[in-house]
Amino acid sequence: MARCDFCPSGAKMHCRICDIKLCAECNVIHSTATAKTSQRHVTLPYSEVSSGEGKSVHVVYCRECKSATMGKCPCQSKRDQATDLDFTRQKLQRDTEDLEETILKNLENVFSNLLQKKLQIPVFYQELLTTIQEQGRKWQKMVEQVVQKKVIEVNEMLHNHVGKLDQNLEEIDQLMKDYTKETQKGQQLFLSGSTDAVKSYRPILNKTIEIKLTDIAPPSFNSISPDCKVLEKEFGEISLGAVTERNISLGNRQLNSFMRKPKVTGHLSSGLMKSELVTCDENDAIWVACRRSLRRISRQNVILEKIDLYSGYIYGICVANKDTLVYSNKAMKEINFVKRRKQIGSLSLHGWRPCGVCTSASGDLLVCMRNETEDAGKVVRFSGSKVTQEIQTDSEKKPLFSPTSKMMYIAENRNSDVCVSDYGGMAVVVVDSEGTFRFRYTGLLGNTALESFSPFGIATDIQSRILVADRDNDRIHVTDGDGHFLLYVTVGLSQPYSVCVSRDNLLFVGSESDDKVTIIEYSH
508 forms bridges with which residues in the sheet? Predict the structure, then answer.
């Protein structure tokens, strides 16, 4: 009996391309391994036929017509035709699924995104017009201030001019009064006829009479005709937005080949009011948190551990060092570390309120936090208790995260990217390990741009895909590592709040509507 070329089992099939004998099990492996090669490897049933001399000749024969199959027997030609037809049918089905599930959906999302941008454009231009009009009002106010200052100067000049003339008038009026008296005295002396009085007369016109008059020329205004070009430059310049063109990929068959139609494979019950926060541990158990309570649940829905806090509010959970639970206590402004239901450490955040937490591949702890006094959000990397990195602004010193966002959750991707769901900013913000901004995913939704993206929990998987819970729209968004949309997971979901992906690539979804944790299979 002829044996398989790869194991001791008997040969059942033969590959014409590789000229090798294969057992049934090795045939499956060989067919899978060569499925994506440029030349299709066809395996045929293997048979031994006697040569008539008492010896078995190891030649490949067709079991149906007993023809040697080093060439093509009639049966093989029929099989090839059937195989080619099946292959074409499979390709047609696959192409149709790609068109429906990937190309058309991506086109719908691109259309939705462009429509959303179109709706946003008038808002941007109205903001620009408002800024220009405000600048005009500032200039108008400045001109009015200059005019008022000049009016005050003219009034002061008028007052001084009139004051000088009034002074001259007073002096002349006094002289007129004095000389009127002298005139009257001279007339009385002349008419008196008294010789002695006339002899005592002393002429008053022997000395020169000098009067100091102030002559002020009328003021003038030297106006300068404004140069419109200079004014326009001083007023401000409008910077045109950068116009860039980019190519987008509507389909990624290689990546989508790893995707499958999502289906619910089970549920876990936490026994809590809600299953808001979920995270997977190294032992395939799931931690669930709601408010002040934590539960560790097995895949068989057995509660393994219970932790209840006396104060505070849990806003984020993760597992570090395989068996250490990390949770953020927003009310107490601290991060706590628990092992076997005992607290083994904590980090005080000095006025900052923590939200989402995750561990990195290097063992660091990444924490989202907010300062409500300063209306600021940031991500801080801790190595032990030491702060080694703060991620808050981009290269232009503009905030990466919304100043009003009270919910921020975080995950590290396999390429060390830091992915943050920013609820207030209605976006997923992704930076690299150095904190440099990479992209912002704003959640393309259906055929309309009027829906709002409400990102909450976030996770990544072994293919570097990003999964984010869109609570208000009852769905999970799945993108590739560069933010390109792949698919929605909507099956069995109601108000999904948090997500985590297990080592065997199952998706666990915590809900804000009940105590159920939904288990979903979405990938090969």
Answer: 500, 519
Look up residue 462 and give its two tokens.
């072994």
- Do 507 and 522 meet the contact criterion of CB atoms below 8 Å apart? yes
Q: Using an 8 Å Cβ cutoff, are 485 and 477 in contact?
A: yes
CA–CA separation, 63 vs 18, rounded Å? 20
- Ranges in the chain annotated CATH 2.120.10.30: 257-523
Going by the DSSP 8-state scheme, the letter that residue 73 receives in this structure is: -
- How much is the pLDDT for 272? 93
What is the DSSP secondary-structure string of 368-428? EEEETTTTEEEEEEEETTEEEEEE-B-TTS-BSS-TT---EEEEE-TTS-EEEEETTTTEE
The stretch 414-423 carries a mean pLDDT of 94
Tell me which residue of 352, 471, 448, 444 sits closest to 401, measured CA to CA: 352
What's the rounded Cα separation, in Å, for the pair 367 and 378? 8
Residue 215 has pLDDT above 70, yes or no: yes
Query: For residues 125 and 102, what is the distance between their CA atoms, to the nearest angstrom?
Result: 34
Looking at CATH, the fold of the domain delimited by 257-523 is given as Neuraminidase (2.120.10)
Q: How far is CA 31 from CA 22, 39, 75, 135, 381, in A?
A: 10, 12, 20, 72, 47
Nearest to 172 by CA among 209, 204, 206: 209
**How many Å apart are CA 285 and CA 280, to the nearest integer?**
6
State the average pLDDT over residues 57-84. 49
Q: Closest Cα partner for 510 from 326, 356, 341?
A: 356
Count the alpha carbons within 13 Å of 134 in the hemisphere toward its beta carbon. 6
Pairing mode of beta strands 342-348, 334-339? antiparallel
CB neighbour list of residue 208: distance below 8 Å, 6 or more residues apart: none
Closest C-alpha among 354, 374, 376, 375 to residue 365: 354
Contacts of 9 (CB under 8 A, 6+ apart): 3, 23, 24, 25, 26
Q: Quick check: 400 and 390 in contact, CB under 8 A?
A: no
Predicted confidence (pLDDT) per residue in 259-316, tens digit: 567 899 999 999 999 999 999 998 889 999 999 999 999 999 999 999 999 888 999 9
Query: At 101, phi and psi to the nearest 5?
Result: -85, -25
**Residue 407 is encoded by which pair of tokens?**
């919910």
Strand order in the sheet with 475-479: 455-460, 466-470, 475-479, 485-489
